[in-house]
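Morning!

This is the sequence you dropped in the shared folder:
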Amino acid sequence: MNVECQPHTYKTHAPFIVLTLSVLRLMLKRILLLTQLVLLLPLAAPNDSRAQNRKPSQILRQVAEQQRKLSEALQRAAEQSGEQSSPSSQEPAFAPDPDELDKMDEALMKFAAERAAGFKISDWKGEELYALAALYQMAEQFASAGEAYLAYLKGDARSRMAANARTGLIRALIETERLDDAEKLLVGAEWIVTGDPVTLAVRTGLYKDLAIAMRDRNLYEKAAELAKKGYGLADMVSESSRIGANMQEAVERNQIILAAIAVASQERIGRKKEAAEMNKLALAFDFNRQPELRSVYESELAAARLIGSAAPELDVLRWIAGSQGSPKSLSELRGKVVLLDFWAMWRRPGVSGFQRLRRLQSKYAGRGFEIIGVTKLYGRSDTEESLKREQEFKSLENYKAKHQLTYPFAVGKMDDVTNEERYGVIGIPTIILIDRRGAVRFVKRGVGEYRKLEKQIEKLIAEK
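The structure's back. Tokens below.
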């Protein structure tokens, strides 16, 4: 499951365990959120009545119990896999497969959606209304979540859960692309939490997500402003002695990503001096606690600079045709949404995503969606070493048939990093999404988070 950078290939080398842990943090975000939401609710006395079990707080606890069962099953599977792996294997033992974590996340979301059905916001108030909002959030029904959180705040604006409700409301506003409303609530006087470093720590993540959403709408001035404010907030929060090590780790990660967004956005609007100052500030960050954050900053900055720009052409030694042939260039695909999948035969994590890519290709066939696998000659395959050029091309064709991949491969020269440098790829697998106008719109590193990828594809396909 590791997302290791290719040895002797990239200028920036990110340790595989670092990106592995980054993927796990992303996959477990929902689990941590659910735990927090449930703990905020008062413990309900056991009651087997059907009426009691139809309260939102009881349903939320059912979701929490389902999460516990799924995560325990996944952990057992990971431990069995670790026990069976070779002692010399580079794969970390007892580490859940990110693709399996992704599937667990999907199952939990569907479980919450099924149990949220039938509730009406107007039927509840107080803590039960808060629980219903949290349930909608777990089900990714963000419009309903936002409505429920807003109703709760109107009735209980000074309650002990008000800060969390505001967090949930801002999250819902971002997800439903009501960005101006999210910005007003995030930076406005409604948020009185200066004495609560934990809530402020969560707020750094909201600044990051809102800045990214603004950037993705080409609102670079707002993105730069939000990223700079978020960076300053993170700097203040990380100095607090009242947050735990895990929370501080998350804050510092948000901070370094906010710096990358600020630098790239300022560059985009011509504020080169401010961009240089922010870049200098980011590089002066104390990386001793989390050395991997240097690589995170470099990769996030490369992606932030790329998004919104015209997709560079691929340097191709030879195409391996798909079922519909192969393009001569990316420009030939203008008018279509294009997914570039950077991978290599010898990297096992890339294999776990093939099933997802096959499904995406089938689902969006005929809707102007194309996939291109981007790789290069390495002199080896998944089973053989020291291959000559034509032998490796033959291995690529066999590999393509073995994994039932019907899209074309763009194969680069041996030891050539041109395509990787053009797209800021520091490790494989990496996925790049290009819109119909030929602009880069989304970068996904590593495995997992395929639902997020699919949402991006849906969005780009809907654009004309």
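Headline: The radius of gyration is 23 Å.

More detail when I'm at my desk.
O.
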